[in-house]
Amino acid sequence: MNALLGLLRKEWYHILRDRRTLFVIVFYPIVQVMLFGASVRTDVRNVRLAIVDPTPDATTLELRNRFAATGVFRIVSVTPTDAPLDHLFQTDTAQVAVAFQPRFGERLSRGEAAQVLVFSDATEPNSGTSRQIYVRSVLQAYQEELGLRAGALRIVPRVRSRFNPTRVSANLFVPGLMAIILTIIAALMTALSLTREKETGTMEVLLVSPLRPWQIIVGKISPYLVIGFLSVLSVYGVARIVFHVPMQGSLALLIVEGMLFILVSLSLGILVSARTSSQRVATLAAMMATMLPTQMLSGLVFPIESMPRALQWVSLIVPARWFIVIVRGIMLKGVGLSYVWQETMILAAMALVLLVASTQSFKVRLQ
Amino acid sequence: MSDATIRATQLTRRFGSFVAVDGITFEVRSGEVFGFLGANGAGKTTVIRMLTGLLLPTAGQATVAGHDVYRESEAIKRDIGYMSQRFSLYDDLSALENIRLYGGIYDIERTELRHRTDTMLERLGLTRVQNDSVGSLPLGWKQKLALSVALLHRPRIVFLDEPTSGVDPITRRQFWELIYEASHAGTTVLVTTHYMDEAEYCDRISIMVAGRIAAIGTPAELKQSAGVESIDELFVQLARPASDHAAAGQR
């Protein structure tokens, strides 16, 4: 017991005295959330709209006003022909264009089909589609009003996006970011701190001492559990205060799940460092084993459903995949443990397997 | 000899096709200062690693403090102290914190640890800098501290792997005083070195050349039987034919 306490104290000294690393650990989560949350957006805003209106009349003016009034669109040009459109798109001046048929209002009032052509820059297909949807929803709303005034019956779909009604992308990304940040702090830091001891030679002395492998591993893991706990809180704080990400569920549950996920990442870090001998190799290995899968295969950036089948299988063993489901569930949907217990069990099983594996592969002897 | 605390018989270690230690047989008696001499790469460190349980032998037998190196390495660990070739304390911890850490690892009772710590710092003249980080101390002080820490739990046997390399002659002399003190207190000392003058301080020495023990005995015996003036001369005589092999063994 004495030995373990001594080891824990020593690890704390290492962490607290390595000012630069400490700085990174403390500020990295905050900076990362701010950057990611602010820059990665899929929600549509400030869409540059070009209008082609050969014969302006009351109806087209009304529609133009409606586009402007949504707050989503900014009208960048109004022209009588579609000739300048190519140029506008090429120079990125416009992202969407709406072209009214000549004598648009007149046709409409006579009950004839009045056509609107919608162009959109589909260089980025997802954003292109989102912008089109916004354009159509404005047109549709207007048409429904006209129809209602005329007393005609029709099916009127009302669409609501649940859990993220305003489709704010921060709500989607910030919870996922928690996974990335915790992974990096946990896996990388433990991997580094273990291999550092191998490099400096102090590991030999620990191995020659009566310490058991599990004591060395617990000594390495525990301080970072505490740090991970603080990271969960700081990411949560930034998410709430800066990005106003809603918190529908229980903070206590979120923290417990966070700690479980950290434990998985820590064990992964130990496993990596048990099998490498230099800090450089450990850094690379930890990055490969955690960062890439976490960013690419966790469903954080790319939806798992649209991945090739093989990658979907691979994603099953990425801890972050399950953690992200849990965090989004708790924060956005407000679900409790009874809804995320399966994901929780998977994470717990992963933690167990990795811990056992790292204890096993942690060699008491040099090779 | 029944009072041997280290006994190796045909101890061998291969790394792939390279034979680092080639069937060596020797004994270290209780309470003696046993010098392990040899050029770099002669296999000294490999022998120490096998005896401390860091490395499994490829073949042969060895017991340390009566425990078998294959099956009882955990028991061995409680009876030995070890100072590695590389600096074995934590640079970012103070002398006091390093001592406390190892005191905890070896489960030394609290008041006893405080007593030993005070005595040690006083003896080393480090009381004034006990709270400075060890990394900021001169190398000689660090090495003396590392030795004292390796002896903190009063092991039956202490393994010192080139403890004096890179240390100035005056500090080396002080270092050897510490070794003698431990020896008088009943600790068996196995020390490796490539400073031949240090061999004269040992009760018995063995000279390793290319993984084998080329000579073993008291310094006086060895010099007499080889008809040389100093261990240095003897060593050059023994090591020259094998210098190619030793060069190949450098890591």
Strand percentage of chain B? 25-35%
Q: Going across the major beta sheet of chain A, what is the strand order?
A: 2-1-3-4
- Cα-atom radius of gyration of chain B: 18 Å
Helix content estimate of chain B: 25-40%
Structural class assignment of chain B? alpha/beta
What is the mean predicted local confidence, pLDDT of chain B?
88
Which secondary structure elements does this structure contain, and how are they paired or packed?
The complex is a heterodimer of chains A (367) and B (251).
Chain A: H1 2-17, H2 19-39, E1 47-52, H3 58-69, E2 73-79, H4 85-90, E3 96-100, H5 104-109, E4 116-120, H6 125-150, H7 169-200, H8 202-208, H9 213-241, H10 251-274, H11 279-296, H12 309-315, H13 319-333, H14 337-361
Chain B: E1 4-15, E2 18-29, E3 33-38, H1 44-51, E4 59-64, E5 67-68, H2 73-79, E6 80-83, H3 95-105, H4 110-124, H5 139-150, E7 157-161, H6 169-184, E8 188-193, H7 196-199, E9 204-209, E10 212-217, H8 219-226, H9 231-239, H10 243-249
Parallel strand pairs in B: 3-8, 3-9, 6-7, 7-8
Antiparallel strand pairs in B: 1-2, 1-4, 4-5, 9-10
Helix pairs in contact in B: 5-6
Question: Could you characterize the architecture of this molecule?
Answer:
The complex is a heterodimer of chains A (367) and B (251). Chain A is an alpha/beta fold. Chain A has two domains: 47-162, 3-Layer(aba) Sandwich (abc type-2 transporter like fold), CATH 3.40.1710.10; 169-366, no CATH class. Helices cover 66% and strands 6% of the residues of chain A. Chain A has 14 helices and four strands. Chain A has a four-stranded mixed β-sheet with strand order 2-1-3-4. In chain A, α3 (58-69) links the parallel β1 (47-52) and β2. In chain A, α7 packs antiparallel against α9 (213-241). The longest helix of chain A is centred in the middle third of the chain and has 32 residues, at 169-200. Chain A is elongated, with a radius of gyration of 28 Å. The longest helix of chain B has 16 residues, at 169-184. In chain B, α5 (139-150) packs parallel to α6. In chain B, a hairpin with a 2-residue loop joins β9 and β10 (212-217). The model of chain B has no long low-confidence stretch (mean pLDDT 88). In chain B, the strands form two sheets. A six-stranded mixed β-sheet of chain B has the order 6-7-8-3-9-10, sandwiched between helices. With 251 residues, chain B is of the alpha/beta class. The radius of gyration of chain B is 18 Å and the shape is globular. At the A-B interface, α1 and α8 of A face α2 and α3 of B.
